[in-house]
Amino acid sequence: MSFLPPELIFDILSRLPPKDLMRFLCVSKSWYALIHDQIFIKAHLQRSIETNSAPLTILLRKFSPECPPSHFFSLSFSDNETIGTAVKTEQPLKCPDEYTDILLDYSVHGLVWIHNDDESDMALWNPSIQKFKKIHVPNFEPDASSSSGSEMEQRREPRDTCYGFGYDSVHDDYKLVRIFEFANEGRIVGSQVHIYSLKSNSWKRIQDMPWNCFGIHHDYLMFCDGALSCLVYNRLCTNEVIILTLSLATEKYCQFRNPVHHPSINESRLILTVLGGCLCLCDTFLETQHDVWIMKEHGVAKSWTLLYSIEGGDLPWSIDFMCVPLVFSRDGEMVLLSDNNTTFFWYDLKGKSFKRAQFHGRPYLYEMTVVCWGSLCLLDGDPVIAEPETERQQKVPTTSTKRKYSSSEDEETYDDWY
User: Fold this and answer.
1) Model pTM?
2) Does residue 365 lie within any of the structural domains?
3) Is 294 left (phi over 0), alpha (psi -120 to 50) or beta?
4) CDD domains from the entry (predicted)?
């Protein structure tokens, strides 16, 4: 290969999937250096984004209170196809006991934020190349007093915590945001916001949420176009849910309305997600109609567009009405949906038809579905080391409250059927 010019080798390798590039690290010292070079890693990522060619993997966790919590699977399949394969995947966080839970959240550039249930142990993980980096978790000491407001507002106690993970393109840095809300007599009265920088490996406190925003709807924030977004209540307008965004580059907040307007916020279930690089709002109204909106121009409320609407009678099989869109097909004509952690299916936007997706070997029940694109990010991270099976078995109690876990049970899987 020495007769090929370096720029041609660069171009050829930048078109290959991450798993192939990992195998090519041992070809030569020059290839090893090239693939580890940050310029190449960014070029490889950029090409994947522009051509929409990155390998797609869906991560999920097997749902079973009787099995170890580190039970994860990755689903791989080709575009638009209804048949794929599920493979058990090792994750980087090891469980000290059978009661520790491991959770997945959002993915950016192939990196997944993974943590235990009390958020004392967390990491950024690239499952496509099985590399990770632990995140130092400081001993957050919430400020229980308020610098403004009445005496009642100053006496507050911790209530809810949510996180968001994203990429700051201005500073070329991956960041994790932690929002902590306080309450007084059940009423939310304030917040604290911290941000973690992967580049500096440090946390800092930034400006609190705007005073009129409270009650974040979910445990995580969604990343889109350099900002983290969430649904919150608006103190300035009764019965209104708005979208709050935080720019990772400027650390400034912005607020805008959502496209859904119902007489009562209790009449619908709202979920904010990201689809095709755009903010996406799922609205299930009175369990009779499911609308999905996308914001074509980030931060511009007028750009909300109804992507599709499904009425209760249109759903085939026994699909739960609250089905969440995961990803577009490469031609943009279909959307992969997940319904209540039991079924995957493709929805044809033009034909308004459904095709069930089969994943051989996937667990019957699953949770924490995360769409992850293949990349070389965190190539210099620590390798994920498989935990010996004997150690897993020792961590599971053998009392009557839980059945003993064995390697044969580990393979209990489910093939989708029509």
Assistant:
1) 0.85
2) yes
3) beta
4) F-box_AtFBW1-like
